[in-house]
# Entry
Amino acid sequence: MNTIVDTNYNFPNQKSVYKGKVREVYNINDELLVMIATDRLSAFDVVMPKGIPFKGQILNQIATKMMKETQDLVPNWLIATPDPNVAVGHLCEPFKVEMVIRGYLSGHAAREYKAGKRMLCGVAMPNGMKENDKFPEPIITPSTKADNGEHDEDISREEILSNGIVSEKDYLVLEDYTRKLFQRGTEIAAKEGLILVDTKYEFGKTKDGKIVLIDEIHTPDSSRYFYIDGYTERQQKGEAQKQLSKEFVRQWLISKGFQGKEGQQIPEMTEDYINSVSERYIELYEKITGTSFVKADISDVENRIEKIVLQYLQG
# Structure
């Protein structure tokens, strides 16, 4: 299917490679990171057995566009994107938390709320809310940054500070940057007729101690979007919201009896289903960015990436 699901490159001055659920990060001389967005699909913290054509390109290009549109507010790690699937940036030491921010009672928050919980990550959620209602103010609900194969866990600000995961001084910066990015993301989404419902940001520290945004931003993997048009009417009628995110993958898995729990089998993903997911991701790209998606040449995607990265690293 010409997808890129695993890479084994050996670039000049390569020190190490880290393989996350979706991205593979090559350390070049302890100075640069070459991040390759693969076509792997992850849901419920489990990587699916087959790749999705163009998914890596879509995530990389949305993240690049959004980093450029927020760099006046929050510094980021990005230097260049020499290939549709590749981002090159400054080496950073990642913080061991993901900053999740929610403007609406959706997804994980809604499931917890339905189970009777009114506190999420030490933050109170008002009584009397319906699923997909807007919070009075966006709430920050961090999660631990799990190693590959493990589940991210909810964690409170108090636990992060008391366990020394992040210093209070740095955590205040992370909160400030998270709120600023979410506000800008909300404005960008509104221009395309969308609501940015919730999202997550990851941050790292450069060698000179600067806190910067890393990884992805405002992609359908890290964020949930609703359509503005019809939102209020659907809420009033108690109907499900029309949304843009990879929630459609999660719902398909749930309908097949899979939620990433022990002993559960990943359902078979047919070629037709994989192609339908690819088409949905292209639709997400076009709706989120307001531009047409241009498919990269995937006739020999692994060699294409290797060749372009080598040219970039050799100047």
